[in-house]
TrEMBL record:
<comment type="similarity">
    <text>Belongs to the RutC family.</text>
</comment>
<protein>
    <submittedName>
        <fullName>RidA family protein</fullName>
    </submittedName>
</protein>
<dbReference type="Pfam" id="PF01042">
    <property type="entry name" value="Ribonuc_L-PSP"/>
</dbReference>
<dbReference type="InterPro" id="IPR035959">
    <property type="entry name" value="RutC-like_sf"/>
</dbReference>
<dbReference type="InterPro" id="IPR006175">
    <property type="entry name" value="YjgF/YER057c/UK114"/>
</dbReference>
Length: 128
């Protein structure tokens, strides 16, 4: 059975999704975008957009009782391949070895202002 985890640090969105879902010891995070907890979108500075996205991932994992060290897989969606290097630079600020397994996909995103979206899976035992 899956249960929603409410993460106060992530702004609610007007789309049919749950930001963080626990299924047993696994925690799944929907794709996070560069929106601050107050609902404002981060625009212009791609590294700051990436920090906002990863900050949302961190908030979701912490709401589930874990840390970024518990993230085992991420999927990164980038608007274009030129963003790969700056994304990696910021990604290293949040994750250390052993890094989560990761896929990176270049694709158009749901809003013309979006350049990055990241979803994550974490292993956080329920009774740790």
């Amino acid at each position: 059975m899956a249960n929603e985890i409410l993460a106060k640090g992530i702004a609610p969105l007007e789309v049919p999704l749950t930001h963080v879902v626990r299924a047993g010891d696994m925690v799944y995070m929907s794709g996070q975008i560069a929106v601050r907890a107050d609902g404002t979108m981060v625009k212009g500075d791609f590294k700051e957009e990436t920090r906002a996205v990863l900050g949302n991932i961190k908030a979701g994992v912490e709401a589930a009782g874990g840390t970024l060290d518990d993230v085992v897989k991420t999927t990164v969606f980038l608007l274009n391949a030129t963003l790969f290097a700056p994304m990696n630079e910021v990604y290293r600020e949040y994750f250390t070895k052993p890094f989560p397994a990761r896929s990176t996909i270049v694709a158009p995103l749901s809003d013309p202002d979006l350049r990055i979206e990241i979803e994550a899976v974490a292993y956080i035992p329920e009774h740790s």
